[in-house]
Amino acid sequence: MAKKLMKGCEAVAEAAIQAGCHYFFGYPITPQNDIPEYMAARLPKVGGCFLQAESEVAAINMVYGAAAAGARCMTSSSSPGISLKQEGMTYLAGAELPCVVVNMVRGGPGLGSIQPSQGDYFQATRGGGHGDYHPIVLAPSSVQEAVDLMHDAFDLADIYRTPTMILADGIIGQMMEPVEFHEHEARELPKKDWAATGWSPESGRPRAIVNSLYIEVDELQELNDRLQARYKIIRENETRAELYHTEGAEIIVCAYGTVARICKSAINLCEKQGLKVGMFRPITVWPFPEKELAAVMAQDSVKKAITVEISAGQMVEDVKLTVNGTKPVEFYGKPGSYTPTAEEIAEFIMKSREA
Q: For residue 277, which of 351, 170, 227, 198 has the smallest C-alpha distance?
């Protein structure tokens, strides 16, 4: 299939539709507005339903309803809007309902700016809402990867009956790149016999009850035990990462999303100066690919790690937890929406080597 030049948000929306999502509920906020706009025009043509809710809170609860009926459904927003959806996301997790949430991150805290940021890492990877739960979180670094991960996101949500998030920044949402929509390997998906799709005495099955309220302590404990066992399986089976020039490297740069692309250019600049630098890019930021990073850092050639983010330093904590004090971990980044250049990152790496 020929490639097509598309804006990131529109490509993500089309990928969701091709992945079988015919139900979208959302509310406008920059820089993700192109997703609901695209869905509004496209979904009626494929027999789907687009509904602009009266608020972000309403939108995520509409997702709850559609997911409870067994439909592939999603919502999208940017930073402050995702904050408003957190109560609904924890209800979805507690009810064991699959859905996809897209966050095109903007600067914060507060209303912040409409420029790109990576300041929502903690919110995404630590659950964001209340209770002991985790969404699966996928972090693309290009429009094409965002398209490919949409298929994965819906499959993972269905397999593990859990909310799954695409965590991208405003650059990916607003930039235009050539993308290809192609067939994806079909994964074996479980039957949704838990879905509330109507019941009659002749159906031959028990009533489907979708719920996240457990008054009895033992029942709530049972739910949490079931969720934690599921998260353990996800940690074992679903971590993904990209390695770039890591073999024999002296310094490992850790970065995700758009910044990782800039880091590749910085690494190339460093290599021209004779410094061996590699990059570790987590694609799943939850679960964080600890084993993969630990293996890279265990190389005798590696002296330290440097984490680069458009934030005051969030993913760096997962890097430090993984390295566990065996080697130094440094941080380079700025909060808000300042995106460092390849030259700035390369300069920091070179100075770090000399220190």
A: 351
Asked which of 179, 209, 229 is the last residue of a domain, the reply is 179
- Give SS3 for 288: coil
Query: How do 99-105 and 241-244 pair as beta strands?
Result: unpaired
| 84: Cα separation from own chain's centroid | 17
Classify residue 193: in a domain, yes or no.
Answer: no
Structure tokens at 202: 């002749």
Number of domains in the chain: 2
State yes or no: pLDDT of 159 exceeds 70. yes
Separation CA 305–CA 233 (nearest Å): 28
Q: Is residue 133 in a domain? A: yes
Buried b (16+ CB within 10 A) or exposed e, 106-118: bbbeeebbbbbbb
Tokens found for residue 82: 């995702």
pLDDT in the model for residue 233: 98
| Region of poorest pLDDT, from 43-52, 199-208, 254-263, 336-345 | 199-208
The answer as to whether 38 is a domain residue is: yes
Checking if the pLDDT of 156 tops 80, the result is yes
pLDDT tens digits for 293-329? Answer: 999 999 999 999 999 999 999 999 999 999 999 999 9
Residue 169 has pLDDT above 90, yes or no: yes
Query: What pLDDT does 1 receive?
Result: 66
User: How far apart (Å, rounded) are the C-alpha atoms in residues 179 and 144?
Assistant: 5
How far apart, in whole angstroms, are the C-alpha atoms of residue 144 and residue 261? 13
Contact 124, 77 (CB under 8 A): no
The CA distance from 216 to 199, in Å, is: 26
Q: Report the 3 state secondary structure along 47-81.
A: CCEEEECCCHHHHHHHHHHHHHCCCCEEEEECCHH
CATH number of the domain to which 282 belongs: 3.40.50.920
